[in-house]
Automatic annotation (TrEMBL):
It comes from Oncorhynchus tshawytscha. Its main location: membrane. This is alpha-1,2-Mannosidase. It is a single-pass type II membrane protein. It catalyses: N(4)-(alpha-D-Man-(1->2)-alpha-D-Man-(1->2)-alpha-D-Man-(1->3)-[alpha-D-Man-(1->2)-alpha-D-Man-(1->3)-[alpha-D-Man-(1->2)-alpha-D-Man-(1->6)]-alpha-D-Man-(1->6)]-beta-D-Man-(1->4)-beta-D-GlcNAc-(1->4)-beta-D-GlcNAc)-L-asparaginyl-[protein] (N-glucan mannose isomer 9A1,2,3B1,2,3) + 4 H2O = N(4)-(alpha-D-Man-(1->3)-[alpha-D-Man-(1->3)-[alpha-D-Man-(1->6)]-alpha-D-Man-(1->6)]-beta-D-Man-(1->4)-beta-D-GlcNAc-(1->4)-beta-D-GlcNAc)-L-asparaginyl-[protein] (N-glucan mannose isomer 5A1,2) + 4 beta-D-mannose; N(4)-(alpha-D-Man-(1->2)-alpha-D-Man-(1->2)-alpha-D-Man-(1->3)-[alpha-D-Man-(1->3)-[alpha-D-Man-(1->2)-alpha-D-Man-(1->6)]-alpha-D-Man-(1->6)]-beta-D-Man-(1->4)-beta-D-GlcNAc-(1->4)-beta-D-GlcNAc)-L-asparaginyl-[protein] (N-glucan mannose isomer 8A1,2,3B1,3) + 3 H2O = N(4)-(alpha-D-Man-(1->3)-[alpha-D-Man-(1->3)-[alpha-D-Man-(1->6)]-alpha-D-Man-(1->6)]-beta-D-Man-(1->4)-beta-D-GlcNAc-(1->4)-beta-D-GlcNAc)-L-asparaginyl-[protein] (N-glucan mannose isomer 5A1,2) + 3 beta-D-mannose. It is an enzyme of class 3 (hydrolase).
């Protein structure tokens, strides 16, 4: 013992007088208070991590098993507040999870409907506190950011408009000449107004509406940000001509969208919904307020890239800038569909700010992906942000992987077809997908299986049904001799996804469907039978219609409208359902924000003429927010090169 070595202190009973013992205990208690008391005053729940680990330090990277992920998914399926995509790919860990958040509540209503009065009051205080000061705070942050970057942030909106080939809203807002198609489009518009009005009545300022209990849902994936349904709906309301509703949304963003939050957010979800939504609102309307807001938010996402490899972690505290990986992600890895779904938005952040830091961050991701070896040319879903190596060899075109591939071809198209690196990566990846994942069922259905270290899992998630649209928009820019092949492949995949709808009792598709054990395009597991108002199948209908004008895609879209009206419309909004094969449906009490942003927007475009958001000028991000093609030569020139076309 230490005291045995001290002079004047005996071993017997430590030789301490009562006064000495008192002084010693007082000193010891003060030391404990000094060392550990401060922890309770740190601003968020990652105190210990912040004290003992640097921001770029990580836990040791070891290859784990997918059982860890599955365990997380099982828990997520029981948790109504869980992230949007935790099964299938969005009963797997999903991403568009899309990535992580696209699985909603599929639990007992009694559990989801519980509300603590104190919690409600706290939410109300949080929602209202920013109305007087959020705009001024945002302006201060923007000013500080601009001074630090020492850049000219002027963006010539009028010149941008001249660089568009066609007016964004078309000649007559895309009004179809066919009376039946017009009637169907008006029905979709009515659905949007119904969904919006109920959100405004019962959940205004919250992130999403719970239509059965008529209250709002906040969730925990936006880091304290509010109004996800409002930001997600801005462009949908605008293109549908719902101007009173749009103006209400704009006013809320200006006065109440508080970006000075201090919570733990999904980098992916904040980027595709908030950054994407604000960018598209700015480009469509020219309202400077949207630009100011998005530049403040964009800067808050940059610390997520502070890793040894530059691969961002999936979760970031928007206040402190601390970032970390999802707890369920294998070995602290980052997710392909998350770090691979930033390119479109970050390129536009650089365009608006004249600051190349955003483009530099996403180009560094590409640089690393091009450098590392890819098994059979495929991109696994998990990558260590510390070592830059793959963690597990699980490949999916559904959740965890999906929008990475989507953003490759869309980056090429958005660059006015100048981004040759994105083009090469996309067609190389598509070749590997065809060689390893594309399968044909005994019944003749083409589908994209999942790949687990060389073993195929004959499952296709609803999220993977976006791929029909992805393949068709890239059909014209691959090898000329493969154009028809790509058109055929896109049509076959879209047909398979339609079959997953038509083979259910509700005519809505399950979260995942299988092609084994005699099953084809049907869910064989109870955990895969739910439908949460997802857009991916309808998204492919829209692209297939635009690029082939085959009338069956409009008919299939109308089938979806009728099914949504019959099974998902309730008295106070739209709700997902727990089992698409049940004759009597059970609702999940959640009107997802992406239903307003994606599902209804794609339906409206499906029944509109092609000059409403023409694909020559606009690329949709993975939340269906339209972003303009960047025509560098035109923007940097003296005047627009397409003035005549635009003014017609």
């Amino acid at each position: 013992m230490v005291f045995r070595k001290l002079p004047g202190v005996s071993a017997s009973g430590m030789g301490l007088r009562l006064s000495q013992k008192f002084v010693f205990l007082l000193f010891l208690s003060g030391l404990v208070t000094l060392c550990f008391g401060a922890l309770f005053f740190l601003p968020d729940s990652v105190r210990l991590k912040r004290i003992f680990l640097s921001k770029t330090e990580s836990q040791p990277v070891t290859v784990g098993s997918e059982n860890d992920v599955r365990e997380h998914l099982k828990k997520g399926a029981k948790d109504p507040e869980h992230l949007r995509g935790i099964t299938s790919a969005k009963g797997e860990t999903s991403t568009k999870l899309k990535a992580l958040s696209r699985k909603p509540s599929v639990t007992n209503e009694a559990k989801t409907d519980k509300k603590v009065a104190g919690g409600e009051a706290l939410e109300d205080m949080t929602l209202s506190r920013s109305k007087t000061d959020s705009a001024s705070k945002d302006e201060k942050v923007t000013s500080s950011s601009n001074q630090g970057a020492n850049t000219d942030t002027s963006f010539d909106y009028n010149k941008f408009k001249k660089c568009l080939l066609k007016p964004p809203l078309g000649i007559e807002h895309g009004k179809p000449s066919d009376p039946q198609t017009l009637q169907r489009r008006e029905k979709v518009k009515e659905m949007m107004k119904f969904a919006w009005d109920n959100y405004k009545s019962f959940a205004w300022g919250r992130n999403e509406l719970r239509p059965l209990t008529r209250n709002g849902h906040i969730g925990n994936m936006f880091g304290g940000l509010r109004g996800a349904s409002i930001v997600d709906s801005l462009d949908t309301l605008y293109i549908m001509g719902l101007m009173d509703e749009y103006n209400d949304a704009k006013e809320w963003v200006e006065t109440s969208l508080d970006l000075n939050s201090n919570g733990e957010a999904s980098l992916f979800e904040v980027n595709i919904r908030y950054v994407g939504g604000l960018l598209s609102a700015y480009y469509l309307t020219g309202e400077e307020m949207f630009k100011r807001k998005v530049m403040v938010l964009g800067e808050k996402l940059l610390p997520a890239f502070n890793t040894p490899t530059g691969i961002p972690r999936g979760v970031i505290n928007l206040g402190s800038g601390t970032s970390w990986s999802w707890g369920w992600a294998s070995a602290g890895s980052s997710i392909l569909a998350e770090f691979g779904t930033l390119h479109l938005e970050f390129v536009h952040l650089s365009e608006l700010s004249n600051n190349g830091i955003y483009t530099e961050k996403v180009m560094n991701i590409r640089k690393l992906l091009n450098k590392i070896e890819k098994p059979h040319g495929l991109y696994p879903n998990f990558l260590s942000p510390v070592s830059g190596n793959w963690v597990q060899h699980h490949v999916s075109i559904g959740g965890l992987g999906d929008s990475f591939y989507e953003y490759l071809i869309k980056s090429y198209l958005m660059s006015d077809k100048t981004d040759e690196e994105a083009k090469k990566m996309y067609y190389s990846a598509l070749e590997a997908i065809e060689a390893n994942l594309v399968q044909k069922s005994p019944g003749g259905l083409t589908y994209m299986a999942e790949w687990r270290g060389g073993i195929l899992d004959h499952k296709m998630g609803h999220l993977a049904c976006f791929s029909g649209g992805m393949v068709v928009i890239g059909a014209d820019d691959g090898a000329p001799e493969k154009r028809q092949h790509y058109l055929d492949l896109a049509a076959e995949i879209t047909h398979t996804c339609h079959e997953s709808y038509s083979r259910s009792a509700t005519k809505l598709g399950p979260e995942a469907f299988r092609f084994d054990g005699g099953a084809e395009a049907t869910a064989t597991r109870l955990s895969d039978r739910y439908y949460i108002l997802r857009p991916e199948v309808i998204e492919s209908y829209m692209y297939m219609w635009r690029l082939t004008h085959d009338p069956k895609y409009r008919e299939w879209g109308w089938e979806a409208v009728e099914a949504l009206e019959q099974h998902c419309r309730v008295e106070a909004g739209f709700s997902g359902i727990r089992d698409v094969y049940a004759q009597t449906v059970s609702h999940d009490n959640m009107q997802q924000s992406f239903f307003l942003s994606e599902t209804l927007k794609y339906l409206y475009l499906l029944f509109s003429d092609d000059d409403l958001l023409p694909l020559e000028d606009w690329v949709f991000n993975t939340e269906a927010h339209p972003l303009p093609v960047v025509r560098k030569r035109c923007l940097q020139g003296e005047g627009g090169t397409h003035d005549k076309t635009t003014s017609e």
